[in-house]
Amino acid sequence: MEQRTVLIVLFDGVQSLDVTGPAEVFTGASHHHPDAPPYRVRTASLDGAPVRTSSGLTLVPDSSLAEYAGRSGAPVPHTVLVPGGAGTREEDAALVDWLRAHAPHAERLISVCTGAALLARAGLLDGRRATTHWAYCATLARDHPEIDVDPGPIYVRDGHVSTSAGVTAGIDLALALVEEDLGRDTALIIARYLVVFLRRPGNQAQFSAQLSAQTARREPLREVQQWITEHPEGDLSVESLAERARLSPRHFARAFQAETGMTPGKYVDRVRVEHARRLLEDTSDGVEEVSRACGYGTPEAMRRAFVKALGTAPAEYRRRFHTPLTVAV
Best exposed site among 104, 255, 276, 296 by fewest CB in 10 Å? Predict the structure, then answer.
């Protein structure tokens, strides 16, 4: 296999984890194949000078971006990775110009977190579906209506361009690319070494139900939220939950939606799907047993919920993501 150069673009105010997370994944793959390293990870800033990350760390790049400027004999990276960070909010015309002129020559173009904003300013996301950190999706959509911004997934792949959500989602995307290039076994070994999960599909939501919903202000409603999370197999009808909150069903349903941002039924659906996913990933329990443990009653009810939420059936989900980890330290 021909070695792929992964060029990570550096700039002042970059988020350090956006750089080091994917770098560790691609470098880990090369460590696993020492006789023929599949990746060569390089970093470059505009002028080759060190950059200061958003957390105050200093990163020293391997070179300047001018070395990849497309002149005769200049290397053309296989993958250009643009990380995010506070620095993406600065109007760096020179960096955007470099991306516009040279990033399209790469076979893969990746952004992590708010790195999508730099690609957007360079016009490289026009007409594409993309995502970014949840806190900046609305801004990206407002400033660049030509982009189909999807705030839900942890990463989106549209042709040769891939965009990912906040920080650690860059690791998920990098693992997905390694799996595509080198196979699942290599990606799983890297995930084990990094003590992360090779499980999160791109369409997984950036937030769990508990995080995507607001925390209710009133204690009885907060207690109900906690009860739902801890008892997905229980009677979670509006009537039962209202009784637990000591409210009428009508008042409870209105108050719950007003304070959490979603209906009780939607919240319950999300909690049950998440719980079922974890059981399918982490245990060897049968689908029927999992469906009962999550309050579905029947495997068919769980199958319908999975297809609606994740676009795949439970059995297929388990086949893809059931990877019990035994981490060597």
Answer: 104
